[in-house]
Amino acid sequence: MITLAGLAATLLYLIASLILGRQLARREAPNTRLILALGLVALPLHLVSVHAAIYQPEGLNLGLFHVISLVGWLIATLAIGMSLYQPVVTLTLGAFPLAALGILLSLFGNAPYEPLSDLSHGAESHILLSILAYSVLTIAAAQAILLAIQDRHLRQHKRGILNTLPPLVTMERLLFDLIAVGVALLTLAILTGFLTLQNFFAQHLAHKTAFTLTSWIVFAVLLAGRHWMGWRGATAIRFTLWGFALLLLGFYGSKIVLELILHKPV
């Protein structure tokens, strides 16, 4: 039953992505209602799958592939939510395949991991905030890529994707709104992490923390530059993508090395 729910969600995500991709390739207006309807049906099926994978009798299984699936669900949810009040359904073209990949990895991938039991409320809050922050900033990175494409097309006087997106000013404002929310969540995640860490090096957190803090600094500088010096355009895009790249290394780097390369359950 759980596997069927996951596979059904995967199929719905991929169908929606194929429809949207085909319409964009033909320079047609996206069928937003159909795309979002498919996504809204996929979300609860995906949630059933990822919930069963993470919440196990032995404790929370936050292995690499299950975390990818959970992040995929959150990203798909955010992309759909944003598309309901702004014409940015194009974001789902990246979010839905990522969510589908997460489900398949969670169902069929194998990485050693010891489920977490008896977590403190602080540790649970840290984990939740970290995953939420990463998900929001992933969507921000996707938004930055769309903004870069839109800016290039405007400079080259091309239409293409411009027909499916709101004005450049609106896209920039949405990008900075996402970054502000992501940084707020990341700040809380860092604070709760420091409060709940018991053995910094034994928990293999040194590199993760260093990358995360560096990413936080990059995003904080971007927000400060936006407020005090009016940074926008290419500067905002570069800072966003660099900050996300650092966060990506911190969020997944240690898990990939320990679980997939060294085969150590952590």
Describe the structure.
The protein is an all-alpha fold. The protein has one domain (2-261). The chain is built from eight helices and two strands, in the order ααββαααααα. The longest helix has 35 residues, at 121-155. It is flat. The mean pLDDT is 84.
Topology of this structure?
Layout lengths: L1 H24 L6 H23 E2 L2 E2 L3 H22 L6 H17 L12 H35 L12 H29 L9 H24 L3 H29 L5
Antiparallel strand pairs: 1-2
Helix pairs in contact: 1-2, 1-4, 2-3, 2-4, 3-4, 3-5, 5-6, 5-8, 6-7, 7-8
Keywords:
mainly alpha, flat, 2 strands, single chain, two-stranded antiparallel ribbon, 266 residues
> Which class of secondary structure composition applies to the elements?
mainly alpha
Mean pLDDT: 84
Helical run tally? 8
How many structural domains are formed by the residues? 1
Number of E-state strands = 2
Strand content: under 5%
Q: Give the CA-based shape.
A: flat
What is the terminal-to-terminal distance? Answer: 29 Å
Low-pLDDT regions: none
The secondary-structure element order is HHEEHHHHHH
- The amount of helix comes to over 70%
**Biggest sheet record:** 2 strands, antiparallel
Spatially, the strands of the biggest sheet line up as 1-2
Radius of gyration: 19 Å
